[in-house]
């Protein structure tokens, strides 16, 4: 076969049905497309005036009118923009996908700002055929000597074009709606759709109903030139009222005369705001304006915590406002709404390619004319540029938050409990955001004060001070006797022999997940002069692991993961050796009484002699168990303890423990052992139902023994 080459051809009869039915996902989007075309026509005319190529008539007010007619089943869009000649109609309408906006930008690229032009693809007009059986265009160009043109098409590929009768510069597009789409010529539906897509378009948009009989009453001095007056309403004559004066006599009081009122044909309703708040500079916006905008756009009447006003021209044009709402995480959905605009034209909510995922929890608007939209302007062409926009938004948010922490620390502290879910989620989802926020993450300590991560690391635990103070000297045991020996502190992570002198030790930040459940441990810490931070949300567990990975040498440990040296009495080597021997014997007794061979038992001399027993569960084991629960993996049931990593600490300074140690064959020793264990478990986590039943029954038995 011979080699053949040529040009690909497109048959309009084949492509037109595709444009009508499949170009747009939502049929109501034709409102946005036709109104956008009208806005572009107005913008072009104003630019021509600025460039001296056209003189706008005196008193010119750019506007777009949307006129619904349920009786005629029509919908009309009228703009007073630059209009079209017959040649331009033939070029921009009769040729599919030939963009008049692109042509205008190319022609005046050295004189005009392309950012303000909405259209690009030349396909928006054809969205009308998704809902209309027939479309008419009546237009008159701004050009001197231009003649009006009438164009119509019945939805096929054939059209007719002839001289028209339009007397004013601009374009009117009339849609004869098909039977399936008559809802769009309903006044209420039209208002809803226009406000959805066009609430902030740069040209005023008015909605009216053709041949309406509705009226409204205005004051005479409020009359506009284009108002149709139906009736003049004269005020009723009111007699002067008589009231008792200071002297006690009745005095006549003149009343201000009522103004003359006019009954007029209902005015077209203005549906949009042409200069939305995000287009203004932050310094010129008041708090009340921000709050009013928030209420209007998001219909949320709870005041947001604060907001970030984005306004950048480089490396791309982007404006917007992000609000941090106050959310009750326990009872409310934390899903937010970020509305994306392109040149003040609504595109969609929550487009994940542009908005960083963690900011989806916020409410706000983003307007970026540089967005690479697809042909239908309902989605993005996913490329590297979009990713840069997303990263830049994330950076701006981090800059605002870190700046607030530096300069408005009291306000930042006040907001922290509400904004922490956003920030923690952001740190988990965005590594760069995490790095920027690392030093501005707050933790609430046991005193209720908010401290940053660097401040947490500056606080030296009391146990370390005790250790430092004994170096090169002597210690004192619990009886006050001098001990010529080093202090022993059980810290497995800090190995002794063979450790390099210059090796850094992990800095431990202790935390609490349940202030009520872990109250005994909190008391021990406070008595020892130690501190911990409160981390009660579900997101805190993955969050602290993220911080550990980003901050070398920093380790988070729950308050009940170990009994640190600061909570123990200082003992000599000899006393420590004796304790270990006693622990071995009492450990066997406890395991036998509890029927639990896996349980690890330690005997320690705790400073607080009122505490008989506590349970510790290593941080690693507890995190593993939490992960198993999260993924519903069997075999790691947290309801019953006794698994690997759990340790029962018995206080050698407590009389009950001493009694068990000295009376291992005693009559009630087994019952005391069970009670000591359950008391420790209650401080650590809730008892399982069966264990709780046994604990209550045993407590009753103990009280009966005391009553005898």
What does this structure look like?
There is one protein chain. This protein is an alpha+beta fold and 708 residues long. The chain folds into four domains: 12-209, Histidine kinase-like ATPase, C-terminal domain (Heat Shock Protein 90), CATH 3.30.565.10; 277-439, 2-Layer Sandwich (Ribosomal Protein S5, domain 2); 447-490 and 505-570, no CATH class; 572-617 and 633-708, Four Helix Bundle (Hemerythrin (Met), subunit A), CATH 1.20.120.790. Helix content is 33%, strand content 20%. It is built from 18 helices and 28 strands. The radius of gyration is 39 Å and the shape is elongated. The chain starts with 11 loop residues before the first helix and ends with a helix.
How would you concisely characterize the structure shown here?
With 708 residues, the chain is α+β, with helices and mostly antiparallel strands. The model is unreliable at 460-476, 478-503 and 638-642 (pLDDT under 50).
Summary keywords:
elongated; 18 helices; 4 domains; Heat Shock Protein 90; 708 residues; alpha+beta; eight-stranded mixed β-sheet; Ribosomal Protein S5, domain 2; five-stranded mixed β-sheet; 20% strand
Number of strands: 28
Give the CA-based shape: elongated
Helix content: 25-40%
Number of domains: 4
Strand content: 15-25%
Class computed from helices, strands and strand pairing:
alpha+beta
CATH superfamily of the largest domain: Histidine kinase-like ATPase, C-terminal domain
Question: What is the topological layout?
Answer:
Elements: H1 12-22, H2 30-50, E1 63-69, E2 74-79, H3 86-92, H4 100-107, E3 132-140, E4 149-153, E5 159-163, E6 170-177, H5 187-198, E7 204-209, E8 215-219, E9 229-233, E10 241-244, E11 250-253, E12 261-265, E13 269-270, H6 287-298, E14 306-312, E15 318-324, E16 337-342, E17 345-349, E18 363-367, H7 384-407, H8 409-429, H9 431-437, E19 442-445, E20 450-452, H10 453-458, H11 462-469, E21 475-476, E22 482-483, E23 507-512, H12 519-527, E24 533-534, H13 540-550, E25 554-558, H14 573-594, E26 600-604, E27 613-617, H15 619-630, E28 646-651, H16 655-662, H17 669-684, H18 689-707
Parallel strand pairs: 1-7, 16-18, 23-24, 23-25, 26-28
Antiparallel strand pairs: 1-2, 2-6, 3-4, 3-6, 4-5, 7-13, 8-12, 9-12, 10-11, 14-15, 15-18, 16-17, 19-20, 19-24, 21-22, 27-28
């Amino acid at each position: 076969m011979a080699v053949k080459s040529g040009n690909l051809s497109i048959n309009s009869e084949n492509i037109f049905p595709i444009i009508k039915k499949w170009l747009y996902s939502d049929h109501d989007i034709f409102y946005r497309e036709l109104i956008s075309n009208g806005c572009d026509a107005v913008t072009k005319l104003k630019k021509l005036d600025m460039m001296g190529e056209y003189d706008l008539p005196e008193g010119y007010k750019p506007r777009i009118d949307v006129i619904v007619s349920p009786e005629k089943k029509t919908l009309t869009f009228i703009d007073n923009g630059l209009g079209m000649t017959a040649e331009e109609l033939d070029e921009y309408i009769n040729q599919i996908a030939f963009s008049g906006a692109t042509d205008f930008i190319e022609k005046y690229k050295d004189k005009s700002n392309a950012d303000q032009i909405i259209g690009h693809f030349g396909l928006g007009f054809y969205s009308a055929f998704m809902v209309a059986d027939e479309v008419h265009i009546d237009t008159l160009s701004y050009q001197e000597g231009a003649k009006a043109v009438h164009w119509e098409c019945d939805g096929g590929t054939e059209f007719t074009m002839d001289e028209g009768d339009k007397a004013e510069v601009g374009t009117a597009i009339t849609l004869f709606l098909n039977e399936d789409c008559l809802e769009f010529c309903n006044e209420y539906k039209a208002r809803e759709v226009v406000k959805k897509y066009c609430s902030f378009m740069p040209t005023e948009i008015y909605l009216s109903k053709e041949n309406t009989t509705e009226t409204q009453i205005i004051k005479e001095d409020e009359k506009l030139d284009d108002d149709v007056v139906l009736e003049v309403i004269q005020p009723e004559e009111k007699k002067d009222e008589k009231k008792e004066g200071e002297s006690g006599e009745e005095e006549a009081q003149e009343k201000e005369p009522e103004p003359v009122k006019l009954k007029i044909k209902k005015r077209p309703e203005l549906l949009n705001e042409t200069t939305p708040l995000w287009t203004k500079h932050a310094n010129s916006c008041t708090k009340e304006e921000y709050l009013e905008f928030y209420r209007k756009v998001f219909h949320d009447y709870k005041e947001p915590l604060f907001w970030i006003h984005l306004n950048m021209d480089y490396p791309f044009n982007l404006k917007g406002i992000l609000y941090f709402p106050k959310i009750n995480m326990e009872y409310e959905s934390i899903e937010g709404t970020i509305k994306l605009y392109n040149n003040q034209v609504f595109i969609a909510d929550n487009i994940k390619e542009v908005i960083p995922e963690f900011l989806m929890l916020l409410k706000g608007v983003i307007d970026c004319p540089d967005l690479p939209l697809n042909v239908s302007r309902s989605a993005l062409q996913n490329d590297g540029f979009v990713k840069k926009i997303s990263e830049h938004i994330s950076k701006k948010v981090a800059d605002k938050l870190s700046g607030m922490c530096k300069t408005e620390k009291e306000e930042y502290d006040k907001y922290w409990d509400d904004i922490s879910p956003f920030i923690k989620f952001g740190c988990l989802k965005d590594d760069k955001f995490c790095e920027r926020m690392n030093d501005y993450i707050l933790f609430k300590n046991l005193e209720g004060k908010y401290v940053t991560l660097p401040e947490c690391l500056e606080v030296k635990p009391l146990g370390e001070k005790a250790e430092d103070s004994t170096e090169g000297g002597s210690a004192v045991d619990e009886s006050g006797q001098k001990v010529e020996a080093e202090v022993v502190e059980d810290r497995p992570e800090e190995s002794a022999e063979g450790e390099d002198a210059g090796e850094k030790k992990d800095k431990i930040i202790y935390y609490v997940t349940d202030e009520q459940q872990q109250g005994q441990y909190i008391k021990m810490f406070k008595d020892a002069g130690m501190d911990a931070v409160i981390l009660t949300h579900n997101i805190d567990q993955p969050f602290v692991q993220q911080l550990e990975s980003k901050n070398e040498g920093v380790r988070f440990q729950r308050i009940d993961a170990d009994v640190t040296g600061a909570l123990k009495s200082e003992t000599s080597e000899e006393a420590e050796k004796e304790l270990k021997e006693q622990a071995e014997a009492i450990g066997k007794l406890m395991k036998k009484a509890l029927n639990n061979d896996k349980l690890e038992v330690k005997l320690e001399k705790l400073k607080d002699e009122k505490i008989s027993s506590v349970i510790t569960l290593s941080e690693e084991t507890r995190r593993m168990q939490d992960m198993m629960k999260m993924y519903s993996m069997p075999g790691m049931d947290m309801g019953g303890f006794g698994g690997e990593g759990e340790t029962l600490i018995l206080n050698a300074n407590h009389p009950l423990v001493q009694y068990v140690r000295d009376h291992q064959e005693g009559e009630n020793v087994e019952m005391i052992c069970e009670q000591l264990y359950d008391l420790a478990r209650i401080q650590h986590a809730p008892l399982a139902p069966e264990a709780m039943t046994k604990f209550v029954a045993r407590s009753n038995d103990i009280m009966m023994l005391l009553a005898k």
